[in-house]
């Protein structure tokens, strides 16, 4: 018999839950962070369509790297909140 695949998007039942009032505030902040990141992502994308020369092209690559890292961290935060709240 095979064991079910471990889905990292769902926390174990015994994980400590974030208090409801705190989780509501954390969700609001995470949502606002997502909105701010969306502006940065779109700006980065639009700058990428321009033919930039050095050093601006290098700065755009640095921006893109930062954007990717920020998106990964934001997703980690949102998943943590989701996994540690009741609703």
Distance between the termini: 33 Å
Q: Which percent range describes the beta-strand content?
A: under 5%
Biggest beta sheet attributes: none
What is the overall shape? Answer: elongated
Low-confidence stretches: 1-7
| Helix-strand string | HH
Number of strands: 0
- The number of distinct helices, counting runs of at least 4 residues, comes to 2
Averaged pLDDT: 86
The helix-and-strand class reads mainly alpha
The count of domains is 1
Estimated radius of gyration: 18 Å
The helix content, as a percent range, equals 55-70%
Can you describe this structure?
This protein is mainly alpha-helical. It has helices at 20-48, 56-83. Helix 1 packs antiparallel against helix 2 (56-83). The longest helix is centred in the middle third of the chain and has 29 residues, at 20-48. It is elongated and about 55 Å long. It has one domain (20-83). The protein has 2 helices and no strands.
Features:
elongated, disordered N terminus, 66% helix, mainly alpha, 87 residues
Give a short synopsis of this structure:
This protein has 87 residues and is an all-alpha fold. The chain has one domain.
């Amino acid at each position: 018999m095979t064991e079910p695949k471990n889905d990292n998007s769902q926390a174990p039942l015994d994980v400590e839950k974030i208090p409801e009032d705190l989780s509501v505030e954390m969700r609001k902040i995470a949502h606002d962070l997502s909105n701010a990141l969306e502006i940065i992502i779109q700006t980065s994308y639009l700058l990428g369509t321009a033919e930039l020369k050095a050093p601006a092209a290098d700065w755009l690559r640095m921006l893109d790297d930062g954007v990717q890292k920020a998106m990964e961290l934001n997703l980690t935060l949102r998943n943590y909140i989701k996994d540690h709240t009741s609703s």
